[in-house]
Design goal:
By secondary structure, this protein is mainly α. Helices cover about 70% and strands about 0% of the residues. The protein folds into two domains: about 90 residues, no CATH class; about 200 residues, Orthogonal Bundle (MetI-like fold), CATH 1.10.3720. The longest helix has about 40 residues.
């Protein structure tokens, strides 16, 4: 077991290097960049997502005096830089690290990331680690609670549907699940806001943040109530399709196992339906459900929350990553990508180890890697 875990951990290194390398190469050919963003900000042409960037004030104050007659040819590689002093452009490049060749920049980034040193944001006077820590409470709340609630509801419901396959219960629950899966999460979120958050009908739930003003002064029990009060609508919006996917996956997995020969043998030996279902079928049927856990967890924890964070004004990692891409804040982009990838690889390893715990017949260590 220890040898298998060690091999998997060692394989994470080239995987992370490959992810970073491909992303770094793509960024080199992507239009725009932090230098162009600052230039556009100085010229007043930055009206997109980067208009929220702060921190280039020092250059903004000096920009009017940086105009020179000989800069057009030198600055032609940057859009909008014609007429700016070449020395000013060089200072911008040095500030963002673009005065070094690409291979050197990539090697430096890999060395820093190996020590979990992600540097500072280009446009905010704060480290990448600090930014991630500030956004983590939102993403942790959405990801963990969504995954936990989804599994606690979908697995029992899926088992029940498998046992009652073809009955009225199975038919009407399937209809509800299919309708829920077909509704986009962001559209359902808007509907919930209209109905229950002061849109046109009731004003029962808040629309911003994870806690109310003065939360720290609340009694402990009211803090818990207030916390889940804020999470109710976002979790409902994100969980709609997750419930459908996990429920149907569980049902189909159990149906496949119910039809196998060992189930008929167990029944012939006099085992009760409960013993057959939870003593024999459950262990085998849950393998495919566990296989989907890493993807479901990562989706709920990171990527799945972007639109919901935007609609409900929740400032989490999904929104941070999206705005960083728009603003070409490369330290934040690569830092969050590295952490997301590392978490995904670790969760996949934990999933494989859970396989072995549920079914001892599975032995990854005996397989060729």
């Amino acid at each position: 077991m220890s040898a298998y875990i060690a091999r998997r951990i060692l394989l994470m290194i080239p995987t992370l290097l490959g992810i970073l390398f491909v992303s770094f190469v793509v960024v080199q050919f992507a239009p725009g960049g932090p230098v162009e963003r600052v230039i556009a900000q100085l010229s007043g042409a930055d009206t997109g997502g980067s208009s929220r960037i702060s921190g280039g004030g020092d250059f903004a104050q000096r920009a009017p005096g940086q105009l020179g007659a000989g800069g057009d040819a030198v600055n032609s590689k940057y859009r909008g830089a014609q007429g700016l002093d070449p020395d000013f452009i060089k200072k911008l490049e040095a500030q963002f690290g673009f005065d070094k060749p690409a291979p050197e920049r990539f090697a430096l980034m890999v060395w820093n990331f190996a020590r979990f040193d992600f540097g500072k944001s280009y446009f905010r006077d704060v480290s990448v680690i600090q930014l991630i820590k500030e956004k983590l409470p939102v993403s942790i709340s959405l990801g963990i609670w969504l995954t936990l609630i989804t599994y606690l509801i979908s697995i029992p419901l899926g088992i029940r549907k498998a046992v009652k396959d073809g009955t009225r219960f199975d038919t009407w629950t399937s209809a509800i699940i299919i309708i829920g899966f077909a509704i986009p999460g962001f559209l359902f979120a808007i509907l919930l806001i209209i109905l229950f958050a002061g849109g046109s009908f009731f004003n029962l739930f808040p629309l911003r943040g994870l806690t109310s003003d003065g939360w720290s002064q609340f009694p402990w029990y009211w803090k818990i109530i207030d916390y889940f009060w804020h999470l109710t609508l976002p979790l409902l919006s994100m969980g709609l399709s997750a419930f459908a996917t996990m429920t149907l996956l569980t049902k189909n997995s159990f149906l496949d196992e119910i039809r196998k020969q060992y189930v008929m043998t167990a029944r012939a030996k006099g085992c009760s339906e409960s013993q057959v279902l939870y003593g024999h079928i459950f262990r085998n049927a849950m393998l495919i459900v566990i296989a989907g856990f890493p993807g479901a967890f990562i989706h709920a924890f990171f990527s799945g929350s972007l639109l919901i964070e935007t609609i409900f004004s929740l400032d989490g990692l999904g929104l941070l990553s999206f705005e960083s891409v728009l603003n070409r804040d490369y330290p934040v982009v690569f830092g969050t990508l590295y952490i997301f990838s590392l978490v995904g690889l670790v969760v996949n390893l934990i999933s494989d180890l859970t396989y072995m715990w549920i079914d001892p017949r599975i032995d990854f260590e005996a397989r060729e890697v």
